[in-house]
Amino acid sequence: MARPTRSEFATRSSSTSCTSLFANVANPPICVSQHAFNGILSLGDVLAACGYPDPFPTCGGPDVEVGRGQTVVLPPGTYGRVTVRGSPNAGTLILDGVGDYQFCDFSAGRKADVLFRSAVPGRVNVYVMGDVGTEDTDPELGNGTFVGPEPGSALTAADIHVYASGERVHFSRRSSVHLNLCAPNARLMMTQGAHTEGTLVADTIT
Q1: How far apart are CA 160 and CA 174, in angstroms?
Q2: E strand or H helix at 95, and its extent?
Q3: Which one, of 124, 108, 183, lies nearest residue 159 by Cα?
Q4: HSE-up of residue 107 (Cα within 13 Å, Cβ side)
Q5: How far apart, in Å, are the Cα atoms of 113 and each of 81, 147, 157, 183?
Q6: pLDDT tens per residue, range 59-78
Q7: How far is CA 173 from each of CA 22, 144, 147, 149, 190, rounded to the nearest angstrom?
Q8: Are 162 and 137 in contact (CB under 8 A)?
């Protein structure tokens, strides 16, 4: 899948590949097309390129916890902390409809599903005030987590935009993530075997 990535510094495991990488430092240089910033691309340019909002939308409202074995459907709106519990019998969160979702922070455990549903094409914006994480110590999408359009949905990865204002985002081992990420203040960690589809923008990608 197409995976352009942008950061100041990038390191990637030998099992990771991408179509295009924009970074001043990359180790190892394994992308099909690798481009240096060379001081030309400023932070302001990155923010504009991925549509980072200023001011960042506020969060608030009820916390949402998807328990093991549960499926919870959320319409667009403003929420507090959103947690999807992982395996055994991992939970499923369905974001139902195009529009804006505002979370104070977001976590998904091992093998949890986060699905985007819509009967019509359109844009989905997810604003996360904190880190994108799991219930574990390090923020991450847990091992084997799937995040992306629900099968049969009119949405594609290109329609889903996640904006994170925190300092860390982690796509863990064997996670499958289909969206566009704009996290210019964050360190994005992609563990071996993580699969992504979309454009990823972060301060540092490792």
Answers
A1: 20
A2: strand 92-96
A3: 124
A4: 18
A5: 17, 6, 15, 21
A6: 999 999 999 999 999 999 99
A7: 23, 7, 13, 20, 8
A8: no
